[in-house]
Amino acid sequence: MRYPSEPYKIKVVEPFAVTTREQRQTFIEEAGYNTFLLKSEQVGIDLLTDSGTTAMSDNQWAGMMMGDEAYSGSRNFLHLQDIVRKYYGFKYIVPTHQGRGAENILSTLMIEDGDYVPGNMYFTTTRAHQERNGASFVDIIIEEAHNSQFDHPFKGNVDLAKLQDLINRVGADKIPYVCVAVTVNLAGGQPVSMQNLREVKALCSRHKIPVMFDATRCVENAFFIKEREEAYRDASIADILHEMMSYADGCTMSGKKDCLVNIGGFLCMNDHDLYQRATEIVVLFEGMPSYGGMAGRDMEAMARGIEESVDYHYIQHRVAQCRYLGDKLTEAGVPIVRPVGGHAVFLDARAFLPHLEQEKFPAQVLAAELYLESGVRSMERGIVSAGRNKQTGEHHKPKLELVRLTIPRRVYTYAHLDDVAEGVISLFKRRDQIKGLKMVYEPRLLRFFTARFEPLK
């Protein structure tokens, strides 16, 4: 396939570290074999996350100079509100410091103890907020999503039969909302079809259950709909995005992804009563309803980023970079999640290291070994990220044990991705030598951020 060139010019450069293997051995030991605990100055190409790592445009930086830092009624908030209404279609917006601030407010407002929140695969912080407020997460994604090698155009789709079965089992009154991620991160950045979104909304409407989107990577989802659903081939990204959002009652947004900014997020809804209650909670946790946890300059950058994000050439190149890296690895026989998603390439750690049992943390050690091999920082998305069952204390054991190579927006070139591929392929050639890890420190919540490990003998 043809990989489109970068639709931007490089105006400012930032050097990154060039280290030796011996140095990296010391660094990863000091970090407890957890790539989250490495210092930025110790990392070369950084594929830890695409959250807040975007390179902002000159237009966004210009907007930063127009920040209205009024404590209430900032003109930047009014601009952001207008832009969100235009492209997402929701009536009300509550700014937050980032996506998990929106998750906190939504969960606090809508969940009661003993509720069930169905979703198309869990996400770490989302489920943590839901459980913190007394709910149980129920996975309703299609089964194909749990098979890394199954090539399905919309592996993020909700299984309507699973959703209906849950409604029949617990009752609609015990389901405060259905959480639909567009795209699904832990399935490999997989999209949801417009047809499926339409059907989920129809089913939920019959039972008077709200639908709330995790809209973090919604523009990527819109691109896949344009590419893979015939009815939308000639539609603009903006029009597809607007229709997608029409099948939700609200959304949480981490602006650090598809809004192309380094900090910020928001909660949206159409229900006025819910909005009024949200403005009370945001004052407690974040700030005034017209800024939440954001500065005026950040809201202006976000408003401009939303407009830039729906440009077809931008999102086409964004997805093409992921495919480029995925194709390089596939050609070398490296097992990855198929098809390649919109924000990352996911290594299948179970297939990469079949000699390691899941309790030996194959994805965690693979991420550490990739850093040791090449200086490339990635992250674990497997048993460590899944955490423990609150009742039994046992590890959650997801079917997918993955390492995420996350590509920041507008930051790296295809030449950088060549270096990443070279490092992964080199590691793959000596994969039989890699041993597992044991966990020596485990925090109570979201352990993947700060847990520490040691190599098994």
- Low-confidence runs (pLDDT<50, min 5 residues)? none
User: What is the count of β-strands?
Assistant: 12
Number of discrete helical segments: 16
User: Hey, roughly how much beta strand do the residues contain?
Assistant: 5-15%
Question: What number is the mean pLDDT?
Answer: 97
- The N- to C-terminal Cα distance equals 45 Å
The CATH superfamily of the largest domain turns out to be Type I PLP-dependent aspartate aminotransferase-like (Major domain)
Q: Report the major sheet.
A: 5 strands, mixed
Return the domain count: 2
Helix content: 25-40%
CATH topology of the largest domain: Aspartate Aminotransferase, domain 2
What is the CATH class name of the largest domain?
A: Alpha Beta
The class by helix and strand makeup works out as alpha/beta
Rg (C-alpha, Å): 21 Å
Description:
This protein has 457 residues and is α/β, with parallel strands linked by helices. It folds into two domains: 174 residues, Aspartate Aminotransferase, domain 1, CATH 3.90.1150; 252 residues, Type I PLP-dependent aspartate aminotransferase-like (Major domain) (Aspartate Aminotransferase, domain 2). 40% of the residues lie in helices and 12% in strands. The chain is built from 16 helices and twelve strands. A five-stranded mixed sheet has the order 1-7-6-5-4, with helices on both faces. A three-stranded antiparallel sheet has the order 8-10-9. Strands 2-3 form a two-stranded parallel ribbon. It is globular and about 60 Å long. The chain starts with 20 loop residues before the first helix and ends with a strand. The model has no long low-confidence stretch (mean pLDDT 97).
